[in-house]
């Protein structure tokens, strides 16, 4: 550690070791399963300090990971005995209202971006849970409530500042280092530390209609009937619904980017169903990405997984899935906070970008299923993961999009690179050999496992 301190001498970077005040907080993660005892946690404040930190670990072949929001349940932002570069002190956001751009440091969370952009009447496509890290969500693709209008988060990424494994600092955009920029958009965690993002912003001065609803399980057929009409011409890209199971209820988060009258008209079929709770109202856009936060709190043991589905969905299948889900809750009562959500936002803008235009290969006429298993007893770790894998495999086989649809990178925490990147994998592996030949960045969907 003395060598590391000397290496960073004269900088504002903080080094935390197991004996330091603040160390335990620095290794805390969204899931308790991902808290590992790092030998050191470095908290840089500038791109140059990130570069020095990466160079130190890389030159000495010390295992290295990057921490932003810490939501990955694969453990990709944690290390046992290695070095963590935690970007939590790099959360500055600059908005250029004239150019409608949003520049965010690598440690920002979506709440930072949403609030800073709102001051200038702007928004961009960001995470639907606002304490998620900007870096992780963006580099894996990024879906949000505004995807129906503007596509994926990576489709709105204009430029990035990247620290490579050798410590060099590169700018990446369509004009500068375009190969690296291509790889960053979908597989970025494998290529370096992104110290700064520049996003396209859009006018968002109006309030939006949004909130959470819950129903008793017998209302499931009516919910499915509404959802199966999601792709009708009345869907302008301004609406979305995430629905599924949590606890003993059928739940949904709904969104409409427009006035109350149009929103309540569009969602009338489900708003008219007797609910057990309803928080829907007009709210500022900058509050929208907090409505699902109660389903995604810190603490406890978690595993995140996912699948793809196509419409129409069969009521009988959902009733069978609900039976499997409630059987698990009865057998393992501590899993009662587990949530399975089918996430419907229009894919029209996503599909307007060719699959090979970015590293993100899973553009298709299908929708994400996000599945967060939650429990407390470490002895159940393997059991919960096995049940989850079985459930998501069943969803994919019964309601899925077929063999051509693989897995969304940000929901594929136990997946393999080939499943996520498909036909884009060979090019990614070639670029990996160029930008990170020693495979320093490998904890997230390892591109060079051999």
TrEMBL record:
The keyword Flavoprotein applies. Its cofactor is FAD. Signal peptide: none annotated. The keyword Protease does not apply. Keywords: FAD, Flavoprotein, Oxidoreductase. One of its GO terms (molecular function) is oxidoreductase activity. Residues 34-204 form the FAD-binding PCMH-type domain. PANTHER family: BINDING OXIDOREDUCTASE, PUTATIVE (AFU_ORTHOLOGUE AFUA_1G17690)-RELATED, FAD-BINDING PCMH-TYPE DOMAIN-CONTAINING PROTEIN. Belongs to the oxygen-dependent FAD-linked oxidoreductase family. This is FAD-binding PCMH-type domain-containing protein. The lineage of its organism: Eukaryota, Fungi, Dikarya, Ascomycota, Pezizomycotina.
């Amino acid at each position: 550690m003395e060598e590391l301190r000397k290496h960073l001498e004269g900088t504002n970077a903080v080094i935390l070791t197991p004996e330091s005040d603040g160390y335990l907080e620095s290794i805390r993660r969204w899931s308790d399963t991902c808290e590992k005892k790092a030998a050191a946690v470095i908290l840089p404040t500038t791109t140059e300090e990130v570069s020095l930190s990466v160079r130190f670990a890389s030159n000495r072949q010390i295992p290295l990971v990057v921490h932003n929001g810490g939501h990955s349940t694969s453990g990709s932002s944690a290390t046992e005995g290695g070095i963590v570069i935690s970007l939590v002190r790099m959360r500055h956001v600059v908005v250029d209202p004239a150019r409608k751009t949003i520049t965010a440091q690598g440690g920002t969370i979506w709440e930072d971006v949403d609030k800073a952009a709102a001051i200038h009447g702007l928004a961009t496509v960001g995470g639907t849970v606002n304490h998620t890290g900007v870096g992780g969500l963006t580099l894996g693709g990024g879906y949000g409530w505004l995807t129906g209008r503007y596509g994926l988060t990576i489709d709105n990424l204009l430029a990035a500042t990247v620290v490579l494994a050798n410590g060099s600092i590169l700018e990446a955009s369509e004009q500068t280092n375009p190969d690296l920029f291509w790889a960053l958009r979908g597989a970025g965690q494998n290529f370096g530390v992104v110290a700064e993002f520049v996003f396209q912003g859009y006018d968002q001065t109006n309030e939006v209609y949004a909130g959470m609803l819950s129903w008793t399980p017998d209302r499931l057929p009516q919910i499915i009937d509404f959802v199966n009409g999601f792709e009708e011409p009345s869907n302008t890209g301004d609406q979305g619904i995430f629905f599924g199971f949590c606890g003993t209820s059928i739940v949904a988060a709904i969104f409409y980017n427009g006035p109350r009258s149009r929103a309540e008209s569009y969602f009338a079929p489900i708003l008219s169903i007797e609910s057990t709770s309803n928080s829907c109202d007009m709210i500022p856009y900058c509050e929208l990405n907090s409505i699902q936060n109660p389903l995604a709190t810190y603490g406890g043991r978690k595993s995140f997984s996912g699948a793809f589905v196509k419409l129409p969905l069969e009521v009988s299948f959902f009733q069978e899935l609900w039976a499997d889900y409630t059987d698990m809750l009865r057998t393992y009562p501590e899993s009662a906070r587990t949530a399975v959500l089918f996430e419907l936002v229009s894919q029209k803008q996503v599909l307007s970008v060719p699959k090979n235009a970015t590293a993100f290969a899973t553009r298709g006429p299908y929708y994400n299923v996000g599945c967060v298993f939650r429990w407390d007893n470490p002895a159940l770790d393997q059991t919960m993961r096995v049940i989850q894998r079985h459930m998501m495999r069943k969803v994919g086989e019964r309601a899925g999009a077929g063999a051509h649809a693989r897995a969304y990178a940000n929901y594929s925490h136990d997946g393999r690179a080939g499943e996520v990147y498909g036909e884009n994998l060979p090019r990614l592996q070639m670029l990996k050999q160029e930008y990170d030949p020693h495979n320093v960045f490998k904890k997230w969907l390892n591109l060079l496992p051999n």
